[in-house]
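Whiteboard transcription, Tuesday session. T.W. wrote the structure tokens on the left side:
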């Protein structure tokens, strides 16, 4: 499946299927920072922060100017907020 088709799966909120397809895509294209970025976004939608951050880091390692840099920063801010303010309803 092509990366654009996988993007459509995410747009249609078919996150689990998109994750499966992105893993296959990455296995065949291990240097695709865009695929790692998209996989990070898919995991983020599931609130799977560990896998989201891991995939953002992979994208950044492949391309330091990837949009994953900003996504990683935003995710870090969210996690820091939750960790520091656990008692805020």
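and on the right, the sequence the group agreed on:
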């Amino acid at each position: 499946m092509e990366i654009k088709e996988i993007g459509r799966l995410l747009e249609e909120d078919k996150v689990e299927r998109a994750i499966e397809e992105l893993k296959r895509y990455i296995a065949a294209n291990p240097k695709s920072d865009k695929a790692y970025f998209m996989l990070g976004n898919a995991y983020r939608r599931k609130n799977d922060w560990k896998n989201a951050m891991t995939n953002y880091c992979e994208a950044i390692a492949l391309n330091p100017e990837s949009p994953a840099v900003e996504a990683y920063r935003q995710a870090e801010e969210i996690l820091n907020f939750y960790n520091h303010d656990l008692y805020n309803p």
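Someone added at the bottom: The mean pLDDT is 92.
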